[in-house]
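Q: Can someone sanity-check these two? First one:
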Amino acid sequence: MRRRGRRAWGLALVAALALAGGVIALYLVNHDADDDATAAAAKPARAAALGPDGTPAIALDEAARAQNDIALLALKPAPRPVMIAAFGAVLDPAALAEMGQKAAEARAARDEAEARAGAAAAEYRRDQTLFRDQRNVSAQALEAAAANDRAAAATLAGREADLRAVSALAASQWGAVLGPDIVAGGAFALRLARGEEWLVAVGVPQNGVPPGEAGMTPPAWALAALAPPSPAGPAAPQIELRLISALPRVDPRAQTPLLLYAAPRASGLLAGMNVAVSLPGAPRPAALRVPAEAVLWWQGRAWVYRQIAPGRFARAAIATDQPSPEGGFIIADPEPGAAPMTIVGRGAAALFSEEFRGQIQLGEGDGDP
C-alpha cells in the first residue's frame, strides 16, 4: 500500500515538471517571437511580389519608414518642356574686346568731330552777327568762318558714318542686344570683354525653335553640360544659360541658326570649349519631375523605388533623356489621369541595400543541403 502511494506521488511529480517545462518553453518561444517582430518592424522586409521591371518588392510599413528615415513623395503631373539636344561653343572674349575697342575709337572720333563742329558753327554765327553790325569783321574773315563750319560739319558726318558702320558690324556679329551695348560701352559688354561672364553660341537643331520665325521666340534659358549625357553613370553637372538674343548668322558647320547665351564665369567653362546644350521646346502634358535625391544609379541606369501597392515598393528604371532645370529628370506619366505616382523621395539607399541583402540571403539558402 505504501509502495503504491509512493508510485502515485512520483507520477504526479513527473507530470508537474513536464507541465512547468512546457510553460517555460512556450514563454521562451513567444518572447523570441516578440523580439523578432520588434526587430522586423525596424527594417524593410522583402515580399513575394515583383515590380514592373521584375525587381523584388519590399514591404515598408510606417514603423520601418520612420526607423530608416525614409520619406515618400507623390509625383503630380505638371506641364514640362521637352528638352531639345543641341551643341554650343564658348566664345573667346578677345573678339568682343576688339570690337569694343573699335567702337570706343569710333565714339571718340565722333565726339571730337562733334565738338569741333559745334565750335566752328558758333564762331561762324558770331562772325555773321559782327559783320552785320559792321564791327571789325571783314568779309574775308566771315568766309573763312563759313568754310571752317562746313568742313567741321563734313568731318562730323564722316565720323558718324564710321560709328554707324561699326554699330552695324557689331550687331551683325553679336546680335541686336549685345551689339548696341558694345558700341555704347555698356556695363554688360564690359563684363563680357573682361571675361567675367562667358558667351555661348548655341546652334538650334532642325527640330528646335527657329529664332525669328513668326510666332516663335528663342528659349529664354538653356542648360549646358561639360560632357554629353552618358548611360554609364550620373549626368554631368549642368550650367544654366540665359538668353541674350538670336544671332543674325548661322553655324558654319551645321548651317543652322545660332542663339547667343550668357553663362556664369565660375562654371568650369573655357574659351573654345564645346558643350552639350539642352534647349526647352514646347510644353508637354502629363510629365513628372523626379528629384535627384530620389534617383539611384546602378549598372549604368537610373532607378527609383516606386510604390506598387500600399506599403510595397519595387525598383523601377526611369529615362534620363529629359533633364530638369531644378535638378533630376522629367519622365512621362506612366498612368495619365490616375492617382499620383508615389516613390521613395529620401532614403532609397536603405531599400536598395535591403533588396540586395535579401537576394544574398536567398542565394545562400538555395545552396543549403
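And here is the second, same format, sequence then C-alpha cells:
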Amino acid sequence: MDQSATVTKRFSPRASLAAIGLKLQELKLFDSISHSVNVAQKVVKHRPAEKLYDAFITILAGARGLNESATRVRSDEALQRAFGRSTCAEYSVIQDTLDACTPENVSEMKQVVATIFQQHAQAARHDYDSALQMLDIDMSGLPCGPKAELSKKGYFSKDGIRYGRQLGRVIASRYEEIVVDNLFAGNVQLNVALRSLAMAAEEVLQLDYQRRGRTVIRMDSGGGSLDDVNWLLDRGYQLHCKDVSSKRAEAWATTVIEWFSDPAHPNREMGWVVPLDTPDYVRPVKRLAIRWPKKNGQLSYDLLISTLDAHEVIDLLGQPKAHVHEPELVALSYAKLYDKRAGAIEIELKEDKQGVGLTKRRKKRAAAQQMIILLNTLAHNVLMWAREWLSAKEPKAKRYGIQRLVRDVCSVSGMIETDEHGQIRSVLLNRGSTLARLLVGAFSSMLQTQEIAVELAII
C-alpha cells in the first residue's frame, strides 16, 4: 500500500500558530489547569477546563472578542489538532463557563498561572548574583459599563473620568514577562494596590530577603508616598521611582546647586538635592530634582527617588563604565533609567491592548473578568516564550513585540500533515510569506525534539 495515501493534509490560516501549539502540547502547559481549576458546571460535550483552553487558543489567534472563536478556531480543524483538541466549543458555551467561575476558581487559576510561570519563565530563572532584576509596577484602566462588578468612576487616561475597572500589573522588564495581573475597582490607584501587587510578585518569583535586595521596583509617582516607599525599603527592595508630591519636589529643587541640561529632552534640567542625608526614609536614598517648563511658562517639578548606586544604573542601561566618573552623565542616566519604564510596562500594556485585545473582552461578573485577564496573562507570556524559542535560531525574532507576534508570526498560512493515526508529522508553511521564509528554520528547530518537520511549500 502506498504510504503517501495515508497522509492527510489540512489547510490552516494559522499554521505557524499550530506549530507553537505543538510545542505547548509537548510541555503539557495546560494540563495543570485541567487538573487544578474545577469550575462547577455540568459537562455535556466539553469539560470546563477544555472551554477555558478554547478561550486561550482564541486569544492567541488574535481575536478581539471570544465570539471570534467560531471563525478563528472552531472552523480550523488543523489548529485544534495542533493544540490537542478535536473540536472547539461554541462561543456561547465558552461564555457560560466564564460566567460560572467563582472567586475560588480565580484563586485556583492564579496559583496555576504562577506555577506555569515558575516552570517556564526566564524571570523565574534570573541570576540575582550577576544582575539586578527589574520589576515595573503600574495600573491601567479597563473601561466597562456602570453595572459591572467592581465598576467605579475613576481616571482612565485618554478616556478621562468614567466608569470602569483597573488592572494592576507587575512585569519583569528585562524579559517582558507578566509576573502579576490583578483586577481592582475603577477608583483604585497605585497607592492602594501597590502592596498587594508587590506581595503577589514576591510569591510568584519566590523573593526572599536576599533576592529582594537584588530586585529593583520601578514605578510612577502613584506609589511614591513616604509610607509606601518606606514599606518597600523596609522589605529590602531597591527602588527607582518618583515622589508623589510635586509640591515637595518643587521645595527640594531650591536646594539644587548645579543643574544639568538633558540633550534628549529640550528644556528639561535635573540636579541633585542637598543635603544628601534622608532621615525620613528607613534606608539611604538619592534624590534627583527634575524641572521643565509648561506651556504657560511656569516650571513643573518631579523628584526622583533611587537606592541604586551610579555603577548599578550605568550597568542597567548598558552604558560605558567610564560614565560613572562624569557627574552630568550620571544624573542623566538616573533620569533615563526612569524614562525607560515607558518603553517597558507602558508599552507592554499598549501592546496587549492592541495585540491580544486586553480591553475588548468585558464580563459583567468580576470573577469572569479576572479569569479572562489570567488567560490573557498566560497568552502574553507564551508569546514571549515562543519568541525566545524562535530567536534561539533566528535572532531577528527577538525584536518582535506582542502585536507583531500575533498579527504576523502566528498568522502564516499553511498545511498540517497527519499520519494514519491522526498524529501530526509535518507543518508546511506558505513559502509566499516573507516571515515563513525567515523563520522556517526556527520553527523546525523548535519542534525538533518531537520529530515534526517544518518546511516551506506552495500553498
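A (reply): Looked at the second one. The longest helix spans residues 366-391. The first strand starts at residue 8 and ends at 12.
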